[in-house]
# Entry
Amino acid sequence: MFVGGKVGRRATGITRRDIDGAKYHEAKYYGAKYHERPTWYLLSPLRCSLSQVPARRVQHEVEDRRGVRNGGGDWSFGAEPEPQILDYQTQQYKLLPQIATIFGIHFSARRVWDTYNEVTGNIHEGNLDLLPELHAISCGLKALSSSDASAGIEICRLACGGHGYLSSSNLPRIYTTTTAANTYEGENTVMWLQVARYIIKSYREARKGEKLCHSVSYLAAQPVSTHLSTNLSNEALVEAYKKAVSAIVSETAERLQKHCDQGEQFELAWNKCSVLLVKCAQAHTRYFTCEQFVENVESLELSEGVRNVLRRLCRLYLIYHISLNQGDFLRSQALSPENISTLEGEMCELLAVLRDDAVSLVDSFDIHDRILGSTLGCWDGNVYHRMFSEAQKSPMNQTDVPEAYSKYLRPLMKANL
Ligand SMILES: Cc1cc2nc3c(=O)[nH]c(=O)nc-3n(C[C@H](O)[C@H](O)[C@H](O)COP(=O)(O)OP(=O)(O)OC[C@H]3O[C@@H](n4cnc5c(N)ncnc54)[C@H](O)[C@@H]3O)c2cc1C
# Structure
């Protein structure tokens, strides 16, 4: 078990002697899980993929404003310049939700820290009630952030076309470093099952009328039978999330109970439901990030300009994940097909509006070129110059014509065969 990290003593004033040893280690462990780290890895690929914007601008200048690409992909030569690659809606759909993900995880991690500080504070009074809550949100966010980051980096690599495959892009190294986070500090499937255990326990407590902790309190709510009709505000979408996740949890808990009622051992019954249990945990954690995103965007002290951009990003995050998991929302009648259709239309509009903020949002994290270590995405936008200089370093490129040509090929070509 990894114990330690920079958090703990300075933040809380607690020392090992203050509390029971095992619990101290447990609390420190959750504090030491760096939930955000994987998504921060996602920033570098985003810088690389967004570099295609200035890169294309450079290319376009070199090509002397040749023409404009039609919808079908043909070039018609005319007055209009080549569009920047980020003007393609499909490209916006690849990259903008990844930017939203970083902020979604960032705000959720703040909540984990708050809970961590509350738990370590309560431990002084011998109160460990919040420890299971901290364990569950910590495990869930670890698994969600590492899997989102891994998937997101691959999307960014694809967004760079063939350049994303260059080793000098640094994307292959960033990808392999990040995917390891799915395994270390708690293998993700095992993490999801830990979250599921907490959810099922909480669901059962709710049925007995017991009070639940904040992150699972929605499981105690009475199911609402009507569709959301026209209200598709952020708050209404978070409510829809609650309803959809409650339905998945309720169905899975009942299935688990059925196996137990048939006389199966709990662990065997658990294994027979584990695919659905993982799904419960994933849906619950996604809902948690959506809720935190909405709450933080409205409550943080921000300028109105920044808040408006973050509001749009938050909206994109909510709709993007609803659209991806629409089956869950439709099955639970949390949203109607018409609701989904309206939201998808709004998502396309949001992509176009957020397009102009993409580079600034990523630059706001201020990743230094040295950290990025990539020929793509450097601050000055000189992508092609850097790629050319990097290619020149290859032993194959030390002479204009490789030695092998004069040594083997040329004599062969000149010979009378
Ligand atoms: C890059 C890297 C760095 C590491 N650094 C360290 C380090 O510094 N210190 C350290 O101590 N360790 C380190 N590790 C080890 C790491 O913590 C373990 O690999 C990780 O916890 C997974 O354990 P495992 O390898 O035994 O896999 P297993 O637990 O055997 O998992 C194998 C497969 O079985 C599945 N599985 C396992 N249990 C269950 C279950 N109950 N239900 C369903 N499915 C299950 C998993 O999902 C996985 O697919 C590192 C690993 C990597 C990849």
In short: Residues 1-20, 53-79 have pLDDT under 50 and may be disordered. The first helix runs from residue 9 to 12. Residues 180, 183-184, 187, 189-190, 193 surround flavin-adenine dinucleotide (CB under 6 Å).
